């Protein structure tokens, strides 16, 4: 039996969830979420309904009680699954939360989100993409906005620079004509956000170029308006956010090309843009999840092309390794909402990779491969000669049907990422953790990650490698270049990109750190009274590692981490990254997840004191 106070608390959470449900209107396969009093229309009916929802505060927060999930368009394609909520409430009090400091509210939101992502496989990529980009969140009243387009010729310039960052082997591995794609793609669209007030305020010269997350295939800058507005509140500068081309219709390196094109646009705009060039030393590149990995890729492309470097970068839960190799991918599988074995969707034209612009020498071979895929079964693999340029391509089939093409001794693993083929997952600009220069020679970077998220170890490994502070680092390891200065913040018990999900103390601490870092690396001046909304972000050493508690308390743990991380552990992590088999990785995840579920079911019920 639960105690009375727990029952009362559960009832309170249930009431909040009911309020969230009232904020969401769901049609058959289209939906709308609105803040304020707006019109709702479903796909199955032309009936129009007007519903009041939570009011928006000037600082970007809203009712009820920080439930950002209720206003996030990406997650609106569901009616909250009450069985999931009920079972989560039971587990929370009977067996305890997966992460020690999770509140019931956090536990429920993560469980519902995990359930949603699993059930997204019933929808096509196109439907999910439309859901995540068709509507934009409202802009707080204290923020002004202005949309803009990046002219297409900047893609041409970016493409030329990008080729300098790609080796001949990289170019050969890319399995489509990415240069031809820019000819038919629409311009890059984006939005400027800044606080209303003095247009001549020198602090507004400082600019954040934000690249949204979404596994490179979903998402839009419109989903980040409130989050970015909260950064602006303390930063006092401005934000430029864009929508880059998304996979699978526009796989690697389309996103990198668009990000680089926007950067070139900012530092050298056309006359008709009616804006002054922005000094690169006033620009901070930022992004979350895939956008965080893209931020690193952009920094590397700028470095390798010899372009002027920005002042710094900020990444939230950056996706650095698309091969999913490091231990936290397994160990944190129950404390994060990311799907155990990646994102899957119903068959659709978007998954027909043969529709991508093809190189001339591939076209005929692809046509043959598609024909063979229709007439062959997976049990009878297609045979290819050793000179066949597509013999290594694991997934080319029409409407997502994989073409079985493994040669002798190869593993039959189909394409596991929308963004890049299996053969390109270890290219540095796809997975920055494999940078041949070990992420050296980059501007100062702030990395934030959740201690309970599956991508945590990617942030830790990248930080130690880039700063040359890993166990066994010596003078020889300095041959990769000048170590990059990095501050790593690990947030206790927090999941992937928690800043977008929750309005709690860790999120508040994160936003203030982001604002302080951006302000300081761009040398933004103090306000007229010489006051600062947040303290300066001090980075005296090459590497700084901080632990942030669930109450927002910051502790410097640099010395402890560097001393406790052994050479053996570092060697094991490198061995994980160097594994050649994707199939083994996927099998490991499946086994680990099955065991984790079994352990959770067998966990004894807590005894009441």
From TrEMBL:
<dbReference type="Pfam" id="PF07859">
    <property type="entry name" value="Abhydrolase_3"/>
</dbReference>
<dbReference type="InterPro" id="IPR029058">
    <property type="entry name" value="AB_hydrolase_fold"/>
</dbReference>
<feature type="region of interest" description="Disordered">
    <location>
        <begin position="44"/>
        <end position="63"/>
    </location>
</feature>
<feature type="domain" description="Alpha/beta hydrolase fold-3">
    <location>
        <begin position="208"/>
        <end position="329"/>
    </location>
</feature>
<dbReference type="InterPro" id="IPR050300">
    <property type="entry name" value="GDXG_lipolytic_enzyme"/>
</dbReference>
<feature type="compositionally biased region" description="Basic and acidic residues">
    <location>
        <begin position="381"/>
        <end position="395"/>
    </location>
</feature>
<keyword id="KW-0378">Hydrolase</keyword>
<dbReference type="InterPro" id="IPR013094">
    <property type="entry name" value="AB_hydrolase_3"/>
</dbReference>
<feature type="region of interest" description="Disordered">
    <location>
        <begin position="371"/>
        <end position="396"/>
    </location>
</feature>
<protein>
    <recommendedName>
        <fullName>Alpha/beta hydrolase fold-3 domain-containing protein</fullName>
    </recommendedName>
</protein>
<dbReference type="GO" id="GO:0016787">
    <property type="term" value="F:hydrolase activity"/>
</dbReference>
């Amino acid at each position: 039996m639960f105690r009375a106070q727990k029952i009362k608390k559960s009832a309170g959470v249930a009431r909040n969830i009911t309020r969230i449900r009232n904020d969401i209107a769901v049609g058959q396969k289209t939906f709308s979420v609105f803040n304020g009093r707006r019109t709702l229309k479903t796909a199955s009916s032309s009936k129009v309904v007007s519903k009041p929802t939570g009011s928006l505060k000037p600082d970007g927060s809203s009712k009820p009680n920080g439930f950002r999930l209720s206003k996030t368009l990406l997650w609106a394609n569901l009616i909250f699954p009450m069985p999931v909520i009920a079972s989560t409430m039971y587990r929370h009090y009977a067996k305890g939360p997966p992460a020690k400091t999770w509140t019931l509210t956090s536990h429920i939101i993560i469980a519902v989100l995990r359930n949603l992502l699993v059930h997204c496989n019933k929808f096509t990529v196109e439907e999910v993409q439309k859901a995540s980009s068709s509507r934009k969140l409202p802009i707080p009243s204290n923020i002004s906005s202005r949309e803009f387009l990046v002219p297409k010729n900047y893609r041409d310039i970016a493409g030329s620079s990008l080729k300098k960052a790609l080796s001949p082997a990289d170019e050969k591995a890319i399995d489509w004509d990415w240069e031809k794609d820019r000819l038919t793609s629409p311009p890059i669209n984006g939005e400027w956000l800044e606080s209303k007030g003095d247009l001549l305020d020198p602090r507004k010269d400082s600019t954040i170029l934000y690249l949204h997350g979404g596994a490179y295939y979903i998402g839009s800058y419109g989903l980040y308006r409130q989050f970015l507005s909260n950064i602006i509140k303390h930063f006092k500068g401005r934000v430029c956010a864009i929508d880059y081309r998304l996979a699978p219709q526009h796989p690697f390196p389309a996103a990198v090309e668009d990000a680089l094109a926007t950067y070139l646009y900012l530092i050298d705009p056309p006359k008709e843009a009616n804006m002054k060039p922005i000094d690169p030393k006033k620009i901070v590149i930022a992004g979350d999840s895939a956008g965080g990995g893209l931020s690193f890729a952009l920094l590397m492309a700028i470095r390798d092309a010899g372009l002027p470097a920005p002042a710094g970068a900020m990444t939230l839960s950056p996706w650095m390794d698309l091969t999913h190799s490091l231990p936290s991918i397994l160990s944190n599988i129950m404390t994060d909402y990311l799907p155990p074995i990646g994102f899957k969707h119903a068959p659709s034209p978007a998954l027909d990779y043969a529709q991508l612009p093809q190189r001339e020498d591939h076209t005929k071979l692809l046509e043959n491969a598609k024909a063979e895929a229709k007439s062959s079964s997976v049990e009878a693999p297609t045979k290819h000669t050793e000179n066949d340029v597509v013999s290594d391509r694991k997934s080319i089939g029409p409407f997502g049907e994989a073409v079985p093409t493994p040669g002798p001794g190869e593993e039959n693993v189909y394409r596991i990422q929308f963004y890049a083929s299996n053969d390109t997952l270890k290219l540095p600009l796809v997975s920055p953790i494999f940078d041949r220069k070990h992420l050296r020679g980059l501007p100062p970077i702030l990395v934030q990650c959740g201690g309970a998220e599956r991508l945590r170890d990617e942030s830790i490994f990248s930080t130690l490698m880039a700063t040359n502070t890993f166990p066994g680092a010596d003078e020889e390891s300095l041959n990769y270049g000048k170590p990059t200065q990095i501050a790593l913040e690990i947030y206790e018990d927090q999941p992937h990109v928690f800043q977008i999900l929750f309005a709690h103390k860790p999120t508040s601490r994160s936003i203030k750190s982001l604002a302080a870092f951006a302000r300081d690396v761009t040398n933004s001046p103090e306000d007229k009274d010489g006051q600062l909304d947040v303290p300066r972000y001090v980075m005296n050493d090459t590497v700084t590692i901080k632990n942030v508690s669930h109450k927002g308390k910051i502790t410097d743990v640099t010395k402890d981490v560097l001393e406790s991380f052994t050479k053996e552990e570092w060697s094991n992590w490198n061995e994980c990254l160097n594994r050649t088999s994707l199939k083994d990785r996927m099998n490991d995840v499946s086994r680990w997840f099955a065991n984790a579920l079994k352990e959770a079911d067998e966990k004894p019920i807590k005894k009441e004191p």
